[in-house]
Amino acid sequence: MLRLLQAINLEEIAVGLNKRQLILQVVIKELIRLIDFEVKPWEPVKNKCNIVMFVGLQGSGKTTTCTKYAYYYMKHGWKTALVCADTFRAGAFDQLQQNASKVRIPFYGSYTESDPVVVAMNGVEIFRKEKFELIIVDTSGRHAQEESLFEEMLEISNSIKPDNIIFVIDASIGQACELHAQAFKSKVDIGSIIVTKLDGHAKGGGALSAIATTKSPIIFIGTGEYFDDFEVFKTKPFIDKLLGIGDIQGLYDKIISLNSEHDKSFIINAKDGQFTLRNMYEQFQNFMKMGSFGQVISMIPGFGTEFMSKNDEQKSQARLKKMMCIMDSMNDIELDHIDGAKLFKSQPGRYTRVANGAGVSLCDVKDLIVQYSQFYKMMERMKGLSKIAATKSPIIFIGTGEYFDNFEVFKTKLFIDKLLGIGDIQGLYDKIISLNSEHDKSFIINAKAGQFTLRNMYEQFQNFMKMGSLGQVISMIPGFGTEFMSKNDEQKSQARLKKMMCIMDSMNDIELDHIDGAKLFKSQPGRYTRVANGAGVSLCDVKDLIVQYSQFYKMMERMKGLSKFGNMQRNINSINMQRITSQMSELIDPGVLSHMGGTSGLSSMIRQLQQSSRTDRS
C-alpha cells in the first residue's frame, strides 16, 4: 500500500486529465507485481514419476481442468494418467471417465470403494508400476466450512505424497476466492494455481487475492469449455487482455496452430500490411474454430469485449455470421481489393447492391465496412515495424505533420498507445490548455464533472481546426486514432469535421445542451430525420455523428471525479479507506475495474498491497 501511495503524488501534477492516467498506470503496475512475483513454478521432470494432486471448490471446474492438464502434457509427449479420488460427489467418476475417454488418457477409479485415500493410493500405485510420467489425482470439491472434507484432503496428501498440489480457482466467484484460498493453504502446501472460466466475461480480481494469499504462481488458465481451451499463463498478455489492448501474439499463435493455407496467406499479407475483405471473411471462419469467441476477440487491439454482445456469446456469433452473410453477397473485385473500404466509398452504389443481395439494411453493410477498416488500419500500422526493429537502432524523434512544430521526442508508450488507438489524453490536454480560450476553460470544467454535451463537441471541433495537424490531434483521443481520418488526406478529414459541424448547426438548443445527447436521440428517433433534412445529409450521416459523440461522452464520463480526489497520501487511513476506494474506482476504466472484481476487488487488492508493503519494510 505504501508503494502505491508513494507512486501517486497528485499535488505535484498540474490539475488535469492526466491524474486518472497516472493512477491507472500505478494500479496496473502493482497488479503485475502481485501476479508476477519471483517464485519459480513447479514443473514435472521428464522420465520420472510425477504425482500432482488437484484441490479446489465445488463447481470450480476442477475435474475438467484435470483432464485439460493431462491432455496438455500428453500433446507434448508425456505419458499421463488420471485418478478419480472424488468419492463424495455422485457422478464424479463418470465425468472423469467420460472426459478421459474423449482425449484417450488412461484413468482409474472405483464404483465400490468409498474411501478416497484408498482409491488415490491404489491408482497411483498402478500407474507408477506402468511407468507413467505424470499421474494426476482429482479430489472432492470442498467448501471452507466443510472441516471433515479438509481433513480428508490432508489424509490423501499424506498418503500419496504429491510432488505438487494445484489449487483450482473459479474466476467468476470474485473476492470470495481470498477466504477459500486461506482455508486450503492452512491445510495443504499449495504449489501452483490454475484459474478457470476466464472466457471473455469472467472477472480476474479474485485470482489476484488467491495468489497473494497462497504465495503461489498461476501456471495455466482455462479459457473455455473445450479441452484445447487451456493456456500457459503469461503475465503481460493477461494484463493486456484485461485492459482491452489485445494480444496479437496469442492471436497469431492460434492462427498458426490451425495450420491452413488460408492462415499462411493471412500471415504473409499481414507482414506487408495488406488485408482484404476476403482475408477478413477467412479469419471470421477461423474465429468460429478457435474456442471461445470472446477469448479470440479480446486478443484484437481496438475490439476487446465491446465487439461482443454483453454476456451473450450466441448473439455475438450471430452478429459475426450476419457479417459473413453480407460478404457472401460481394463479388471477387470487392473481396480481393487491397483497400475494400476505399472501393466502397468511391463507388457507393456497391453498398446498395450488397445490401439487396444479402437482405440487410444499408447501415448493416456500412457497419461491416467500418469493422473491416479497423482491421485494415491495424494491419497497415504494423507494416514496417519489423523493418525498424531489424535496424536495432533507437527511435529518437517522430514527425507528426507538415509544419515545423509537428516534431516530437519519441516516447515508447505513447507511440504504442496511438498505434493501437488508445490515445494520448495528456497530449490533448496540453494542446487544449495552450489555446487558453473561454470555451477551453469551460471544457476542462465540464470534463472534471464528467459532462460533455454536443455543444461541447462542436466547440472542441472548432479547436481541433486550430491545433495544427488534424491527424495528430485526433490520434490523441482514445477510441478514435487515425480511423477518424481520411487516409493520407488532411483536407478530406477537415471536410468530414466541417460536415459534422454543419449537422450540429441544424440541431436545436435542447439537443446541443442535453447532458447525454446520444440518449436523447435514441429515445426520440424522429430527431435524426429532422436534423438530416435540415442539414441536407443522410440519416446514416447523423447516426455516425452521434456514434462519434458517444465515444467522446464515454471518455469524459470515465474521468468524472478528478477534482474531488485531493491528496491521497494525506487523506488515506483506516477510517476513510472506503471513501478513498470509492474515489479511486471512479478514476479507473470501468472495464478494468470490472475485471478486478469491482470496488470490493479494488479494496481487497489495496489490503493485499498494504500487507505486502508491511512485509517489504520488515
Strand content: 5-15%
Mean pLDDT, nearest integer? Answer: 72
CATH class of the largest domain: Alpha Beta
CATH superfamily of the largest domain: P-loop containing nucleotide triphosphate hydrolases
Uncertain runs are 10-18, 416-426, 478-483, 561-575, 612-618
CATH architecture descriptor text of the largest domain: 3-Layer(aba) Sandwich
| End-to-end separation | 14 Å
- What's the arrangement of strands in the largest beta sheet? 3-2-4-1-5-6-7-8
Task: Walk me through the structure.
The chain is α/β, with parallel strands linked by helices. The chain has 4 domains: 2-30 and 569-617, no CATH class; 50-241, P-loop containing nucleotide triphosphate hydrolases (Rossmann fold); 248-382, 434 Repressor (Amino-terminal Domain) (Orthogonal Bundle), CATH 1.10.260; 390-421 and 451-558, Signal recognition particle, SRP54 subunit, M-domain (434 Repressor (Amino-terminal Domain), Orthogonal Bundle). The chain is 58% helix and 7% strand. Mean pLDDT is 72; it is low at 10-18, 416-426, 478-483, 561-575 and 612-618. It is found in: Cytoplasm; Endoplasmic reticulum. It catalyses: GTP + H2O = GDP + phosphate + H(+). This is Signal recognition particle subunit SRP54. Keywords: Endoplasmic reticulum, GTP-binding, Hydrolase, Nucleotide-binding, Ribonucleoprotein, RNA-binding, Signal recognition particle.
